Amino acid sequence: MLENLNKDFESRVRLGIMSILLVNDWIEFKEIKSLLSITDGNLASHSSALEKKEYIEIKKEFVGKKTRTSFRVTQKGREAFNLHLQELEKLINP
Fold first, then answer.
1. CB-based contacts of 25: which residues, under 8 Å, 6+ apart?
2. Is 0.85 topped by the overall pTM?
3. In order of start, what are the domains of the chain with their CATH numbers?
4. Residue 74: which of 57, 58, 52 has the closest Cα?
5. Which of 9, 12, 92, 94 is found 20 to 30 A from 38 (Cα to Cα)?
6. What is the 8-class DSSP label of residue 90?
7. Which residues, in sequence order, are bridge partners of residue 28?
8. Quick one: pLDDT band at residue 83, thresholds 50, 70, 90?
9. Dihedral of CA 70/72/76/80: which sign?
10. Which residues are paired to 68 by β-bridges?
């Protein structure tokens, strides 16, 4: 049963990122960082790993002279995370 869980979502940070993105369209870096109470580096490394798996999309743009980084979940990410949640539910309610 545990073998059906997606290892890409084992981290509490990745679970948090994906949970936030499932209920938001685009959300900014600083907002996710604040919601999860994590460091810039922690969010950057976990979001980069999720982007490599094509679970999230990262958009960087300039607003004035500052960079704004935003995230959104991809269809592939939504499907993979929903399957992961279904497997977690099977563990809780066999």
1. 72
2. yes
3. 2-92 (1.10.10.10)
4. 57
5. 92
6. H
7. 70
8. very high
9. positive
10. 61
